[in-house]
What we know:
By secondary structure, the chain is mostly helical. It has helices at residues 7-10, 14-20. The chain contains 2 helices and no strands.
Amino acid sequence: MAKVIAVTEAIKSQEEAESKLNLSRTEDEAFFTEWQGITSI
């Protein structure tokens, strides 16, 4: 059986999330291709 824990217990900071999940910030406006053509949200 899988062990379930809250994300707040597993990851304590944004820096830790970036490290554990291999995340990086992007300035690329085309990153979310499904948002292309949307003029307002």
